[in-house]
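Morning - flavin mononucleotide inputs below, output right after.
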Amino acid sequence: MSLLVVDSEKCKRDGICVAECPLRILEMKDASLPPSPVDGAEQMCIRCGHCVAVCPHGAMSLATMKSDECAPVQKDLLPRLEQVEHLMRSRRSIRTYQDKAIGREKLEKLLDIARYAPTGTNSQQVKWVVVNSREGVRNMTGMVVDLIRHMISEKHPLAESYRLPGFVKAWEAGIDLISRGAPGLVIAHAPKDYMMAQTDSTIALTFLDLAAPSFGLGTCWAGFFMIAASQWPPLQQALALPEGNACFGAMMIGYPKYKYHRIPQRNAAMVEWL
Ligand SMILES: Cc1cc2nc3c(=O)[nH]c(=O)nc-3n(C[C@H](O)[C@H](O)[C@H](O)COP(=O)(O)O)c2cc1C
């Protein structure tokens, strides 16, 4: 099957797909003919599906993406500006969780939303590891604490500036200031040699963070966990990521114990207009 399938009866020759293709690999050789791929299009196409998505007539399909199998955009489901603004301002980093397990289906749905995050050249290389039990999170957090103990013993410069001994002391007193007793951890990983691994993983986790409140869930970036996952062999062994992949971001997740009633203030946007 060729790269593109154009339904010449539905195609109105409006040239929208040609104008919108990010790689400019479509052309209309003649205004009376449907668009066709340029030479080498098969190799250049990033399968982003923009040509399929932008055609108002449902005339365009990729071999791997049929028009009628792509869900229609439902304008009435799109949030208004005030709703988007309120969602983004009112989401909070959640550090106090209910003692309640997260159903796997809910996490699956959340990750199913996060996979629509943009990725460099649509390469979609972010993968996930989910630790979905309080005990599992606790075990891995214990490994993070071991790294912190190691950093303290090595007199690592961060040990003092981040007041790391306090984290160990709290842990030993049964208080988890690392993963905050969360019942879940979501870890994004990608190939180490992929240039956009960090960016794609961060965006995917940000999608997850923004979608979580709609499921009644809250998240918090797991900074200490991320540091440990990038360098502490026992944690890396426990994560068992595929060869060549590394952790590029992690978040705690769970049902928030408390509700937030106000939006804390933030610095004004610092912008220079050129
Ligand atoms: C990269 C990154 C790492 C973070 N690591 C932690 C962490 O390890 N523990 C924690 O409690 N919060 C962590 N946070 C959350 C920030 O402290 C939080 O975003 C900030 O205080 C603003 O609060 P808000 O997210 O509720 O607006 C992290 C945030 C980011 C972006």
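Note: Residues 84-254 form a domain with the NADH Oxidase fold (CATH 3.40.109.10).

O.
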